[in-house]
Amino acid sequence: MTILARYEPAPGGAAGRVLHLTLNRPEVRNAMSLAMVGELRAALAAAEAEGDVRVVVLRGHGGHFCAGGDIKDMAAAHASPDGRAAMAEANARFGQLCTAFAATGLATIAVVEGTVMGGGFGLACVADVVLAAESARFRLPETSLGLVPAQIAPFLVERLGVAETRRLAVTGGELDAHEALGLRLAHEVHPADGLDAALHRVLGQVLRCAPQAVAATKALIARARLQPAASLVAAAADVFAGAVLGPEGIEGTAAFVRKRRPAWAPA
Question: Is 84 helix (H, G, I), strand (E, B) or coil?
Fold first, then answer.
């Protein structure tokens, strides 16, 4: 297996579970093979189908997050009878992975250390929260290799904006953890031995939020990125009304009035 998947009960007595996904190819700094892409997509789909998973945590084994695409897979595609089609198919599969993580209604947290390169950079961009070790080095080396960051480019623009994405693309960009924090690519930076405590704290914050409300809010944010605010007024009002009258809205407002924690939250 190229990933390690572990379900844990949500901490603090909160409802539901947390899925920890660890990229597990430390001998190549967790370079992303097609097998890993498939396993990550399958693990996310399974978590979404389970119904009680609330958070997915992504991290790498062995002190690195991900060194980008696996050279062996690219070489195999290049050697196939129709190399261009095979290369495009392999590249598209990674884009589908990023799209799946970007679109999920589950909360996602990336815990990154060491190398965060190429496709690993893209995975960081689609996570809701990024916790970085001081060792993290974000790299976008594709153009320096004569390549194109094809599938991650839309997510770079979404996360960093056009100007920063262009700067990184034309310079083969490199960012240390604190530079990534300044661009809000990373949301927090910690010493390596402080990452687990930071993750525990952020999980507690996420789990205080109702899971269906989180999913609906993420979906509305995705629409708001592409549509003017005026065009969303009616749709947003309908989403709000559904939330107020739904089981989470009823439970949440009752808990607020009675000064108790809602059923989904940690103690």
Answer: helix
